[in-house]
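SAMPLE LOG
Freezer: B-3
Tube label: C17
Construct: single chain, 266 aa
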Amino acid sequence: MALRIFQVDAFADRPFAGNPAAVCVLPQARDERWMRDVAREMNLSETAFLLRRDDGSFDLRWFTPAVEVDLCGHATLASAHVLWQEGHVSPGEQARFHTRSGLLTAGQLDGGWIELDFPAERAEPCESPAALIEALGATPVFVGKNRWDYMIEVASEAEVLGLQPDFVVLRAIEARGALVTARSDAPAFDYVCRFFAPAAGVDEDPVTGSAQCLLGPYWQERLGKDELVGYQASARGGVLRVRPRGERVLIAGQAVTVLHAELVDA
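STRUCTURE (predicted):
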């Protein structure tokens, strides 16, 4: 039986921007090897698989072309978008997801924005591996790490934009990825960032929702603001509204469906 799959540009208000994710709502459970094969076939930074529970919530798993990940923002945003779009969840109803990172929720806001409720994942100051800084070509103002990623603050937006990392060296660093950030020069944004995760099969992630679980609390403390707007300065780019709330972080973005297809041998 053919199985529908969607491609959604998340953290985008138009097609071909933000971060593309594939979304597949499963009629029944499938084995992990099949999900890995589909994710590799889609060849996007993440493919999301959803399976409905009896209470109307969904099991949600995320796969890059190389690995399963513990937390993913843009594919969760894309999943919520598809659930409302296809009538799996009623308009105005909260979407609820059971994941490796616990229960996550998504709600609809005005203007087509979707807000995710994610756990805060703060970074603790740390010594950075010399190879990491060399591979990034960055001059750190601050280096921290949470359970997944290194975060490096640099002195200027221009330095973030000008990075040309050595992905071969970064692939060997023991972390999911490296997040580089700075205060924004633009009045519309509070901070800019880029995220590199070659060890997870994604050299540069276009827009990284899960990184805001770290960036939100960090920039809240640095700037003294409870509502932040970040810009991820990849080639595709994406805007995120971020509201740290203690042990949770609310992350909002827009989403656009760009195609749907059928897996003919599903």
